[in-house]
Amino acid sequence: MDPVLLILLALGGAVALSVISFIVLYNGLVTLKNQAKNAWAQIDVQLKRRHDLIPNLVNTVKGYAEHEQTTLENVIKARGQAAGAQGTNDQIQAEQNLSGALGRLMLVVEQYPDLQANENFMSLQEELTSTENKLGFARQLYNDQVLFYKNKLETFPANMVAAFFQFQPEPYFELENQQERQAPEVAF
Amino acid sequence: MLISIMALILMGLGAMCGGTFWGGAGAFLGALGALALWAVLLAATFLQGEQLVLLCSGGQKIEKEDCPRLYNVVEEMTIAAGLPKLPDIYVIEDAIPNAFAAGRNPKSAIVAVTTELLARLDRDELQGVIAHEVAHIKNLDVRFMTIASVMVGSIVMLSQTYVRLMFIGGKKRTCSKAGVHPAFMIAGIICALLAPIAARLLYFACSRKREFLADASAARFTRYPVGLASALEKISGRVLSSEKLNQALLPMYIVNPLQSMSAVGMFSTHPSTDERIKILRTMGGRAGLMDYENAFRKVKGKKSRCLGQRTLTSGESRGIQAREANDNPAESLGTLERFQEVTDLIGRMANLLMMQCSCGVKIKVPEEFDQDAIECPRCGTVNTLPRAKEKAQEEAPAPNLQQGVEQATVAGAAVAEAAFQTLRFERQGKGWESFRCSCDRVIQIAPSFRGEFIKCPRCKREVEVAEKVEEEVVTEEN
Domain A3-172 is classified in which CATH homologous superfamily? Predict the structure, then answer.
C-alpha cells in the first residue's frame, strides 16, 4: 500500500479517536454536574416537606402543652425565617435554626404522656423523623456527587475538557454549626 | 473477575467438546458455540420477566398508609443510594425475619420484607437491612447473579451432553474419525465432570462477594454499620426452616434462611453471619468502603481483597465518619407498638377495615360485615362505618349543604347553641379517658377531672361530662 495513504489513515484514526474520547469525557462531566444538581433539588424537596409538616405539628402539640407557648412560637418563627430565606448561605443558617427549635420542642414534648400516646402526634413524629433523615441522606448524596464531579474535574484527562469548557466545581453542603464541629475541650 | 474465570471454563468446555468430535478447528467453533448457548439461555431468562419471583414467595404490595415506617425507611435509603425510582415494597406474612430484593433494573425493582422482620427490628436496624437490599439493587446484583447462574446452567448442560455423547453413541465413531487417544478421552470426561462443580464453587464465591459489597454499601448509605450488625444479630438468633422458601431465591435474601450455623463454607451463597457482624462491628466509627475493606482484612486475618479495586477507587471511600447512636424518641418504638403496627398491617393486607373509636380502641371490621354501624367492644359507642357515611352523603347531599349554609349565615348562633346541648360525654370509669369532639379534636379527661363541663381547645365549645360511676361505687360499699 502507498505509505502516504497509510500515514493519512493513521492520522485520521487518531483524530477520530481523540474526537470520540473528547465527546465521551464532555458528556461524562455534564452527567455528573446534572447529578449533583439533581441531588440538590432532592434537598430542596425535603426542606419544603419539613416546612409543610410544622404547622400541623404545632397545632397538635398546642392542644396538649399550652405551657410551652414560647417553644412553639420559636418553632413558628424559625420556620417563617427559613421559608423566607434568600441565598444559599442564609438558607442553610435558617434551616439550622429551625432544626434547633424543633429539637427543643421534641425534648419538651417528652413530658406529656397523653400527647405521646396521641395517634396523630405519633404519625407526625414518624413523618418528622423520616423527613430529617431524608434531609440528611439527601445532603450526603449531594456531597458525594459533588465529590465525584470534583474528582473528575481535577484529574487527567477530563481536566483538559473541563478547562476548555470552563466547568466549575459545585460547593459542598457543609454544616456551619460551630457547636457540632468543635470537639469538647478538656481542661486538666 | 470470578465471572471471567467462569466464562473461561465455559469456553474451555466448549472447545473440548468441539475438539473431540471435529478435531482442531472444531475446538474454536465449540468455544464460540458454548458462548452462543449461554447467550441464548440468558436471553430466554431475561425475556421471561421477573414478577414470578415474588409470586412464589406470596408477597403483597403495600402503600404508604399501610406501614408508614417501612415506607419511609425505604424512601430514605432510595435517596441515600440515589436510585432513580422508589422500589415497590412488598410484605410477606411469614414467621421468619428476612428480606430480599429483586429486579434486574433499578427502575423496576422490588424490596420485600417479612412481617416478622418488621415486628422485631427497630428503626435503625430496619434501615440497615433495607440499605443492604437497596445496595443489591444499586449494584445491579440481581442482574449479575442471573448472568452467573445462567452460565453455571450452561456449563452443567454442556458437560452432561458431552459425557452422554461419549458413553452412548459416539465412542467408536469419534475414535475412528478424529483419531483421539483413549487416555485423552478419559481425561476429557473427568474434566467435564469437574467443570460444573468448579463453576458452582465460583458462583457461590461470587454471591458471597456481592453480599460483602452490599454490606459495605449499606454501611456507607446509612453511615451507621452498627444498625445492620445488630439487625443481623437479631435475625440470626432465630433461623428456622420455612415451607414457603424457594431454593432459587436463596442468593437474594439478606441472610440465608436455610443456613444452620455449621454449614458455612465454600458451598454457601452467603458468608457466615457471625463474620459479617464482626466485620461491621470492627469498622470503628467509620463508614466508608475502604474502612469496610480494612475491617474485612482485620477479621479474616488475610491480605485478600473482598471488594474489587475498581469499586474502591470509583468513589471517595476512606474515612467517612459514621454517625452516633440515635436517641430520637421516635426511633425507640417499643416492642408492643411494633407488634401492633405489624398486626394492623396484616389486617389491612387481609382487607380488614380499620376504624378508630373515640375511646382509642382500633376496631377491625371484616369485609363481609354488612351492617352500617358497629359497637365498640370497650366503650359501647356505636360507630358508623365510613361506607355508610358515604352512602348517606350520596343520598342527601344537596339539602344538607343548603341547610348548613342557611343556618350558618342566618342563625349561626342558634345552631351552635343547639349543638352545645347535644354534645355529652358519659364517663366509663375513673382513669384517663378521651373522646372526639364534633370538630374532630380528641379531648382527654384526666382522672382528677371533677367538672361538669369541659371546653374543647379547638372549637371552644363546651361539652357536658356526666359521671356514670356512682352506681358502681354504691355496690362496692355494700
Answer: LemA-like domain (1.20.1440.20)
Nearby residues of A41 by Cβ (< 8 Å), 6 or more positions away: none
pLDDT for residue B428: 66
- Looking at the fold, whether B17 and B127 belong to one and the same domain comes out as no
Q: Which residues of B touch A127 (CB under 8 A)?
A: 68, 72
Residue of A42, A102, A129, A181 to mutate when probing chain B, most B C-beta within 10 A: A129
Label residue A47 left, alpha or beta by phi (over 0 means left) and psi (-120 to 50 means alpha).
alpha
- For the CA atoms of chain A, what is the radius of gyration? 26
Which has the higher per-residue pLDDT, A1 or B97? Answer: B97
Nearest to B205 by CA among B138, B305, B313: B305
Runs of H (alpha helix) within B23-110: 24-47, 51-55, 68-81
- Decide if B275 is inside a domain: yes
The stretch A71-98 carries a mean pLDDT of 82
Q: Mean pLDDT lowest for which of B26-30, B120-124, B421-425?
A: B421-425
What share of residues in chain B are helix, strand, coil (percent, to 5)? 55, 10, 30
Omega prior to A157 cis, within 30 of 0? yes
Residue B354 has pLDDT above 80, yes or no: no
Looking at the domain assignment, is residue B199 inside a domain?
Answer: yes
Q: Whole-angstrom distance between the N-terminal and C-terminal Cα of chain B?
A: 86
CB contact under 8 A, A126 and B69: yes
Q: Residue B421: its pLDDT value, please?
A: 47
Q: What is the mean pLDDT of residues A123-143?
A: 84
If you ran DSSP here, which 8-state letter would residue B425 be given? E
Q: State the pLDDT at residue B471.
A: 43
Q: Is residue A114 less than 8 Å (CB to CB) from chain B?
A: yes
pLDDT at A82 over 50: yes
The verdict on B447 touching A (C-beta cutoff 8 Å) is: no
| Residue A134 burial class via C-beta count within 10 angstroms: exposed 0-12, middle 13-18, buried 19 and up | buried
State whether residue A89 sits within 8 Å of chain B by CB: no
The mean predicted confidence, pLDDT, of chain A is 80
Catalytic residue ranges of B: 133
ipTM given for this complex: 0.75
For residue B343 the three cell numbers come to: 398486626
pLDDT at residue A13 greater than cutoff 90: yes
pLDDT at B177 over 60: no
**Residues B207, B248: contact at Cβ < 8 Å?**
no
Q: Predicted confidence band at B430 (pLDDT cuts at 50, 70, 90)?
A: low
Q: What is the pLDDT of residue B262?
A: 36
Long-range contacts of residues A59-65, Cβ cutoff 8 Å, at least 24 apart: A60/A115, A60/A118, A60/A120, A60/A121, A60/A124, A61/A105, A61/A109, A61/A115, A61/A121, A62/B457, A63/B441, A63/B457, A63/B458, A64/A112, A64/A114, A64/A115, A64/A118, A64/B444, A65/A108, A65/A109, A65/A111, A65/A112, A65/A115
pLDDT tops 50 at residue B417:
no
Which residues does B370 contact at the CB level (< 8 Å), separation at least 6? none
Confidence band for B131, pLDDT divided at 50, 70 and 90: very high
| 3-class secondary-structure state, position B288 | coil
Is residue B32 domain-shared with residue B65, that is, in the same domain?
Answer: no
Residue B34 lies in a domain: yes
β-pairing, B433-436 with B442-445? Answer: antiparallel
Question: Does B245 share its domain with B321?
Answer: yes
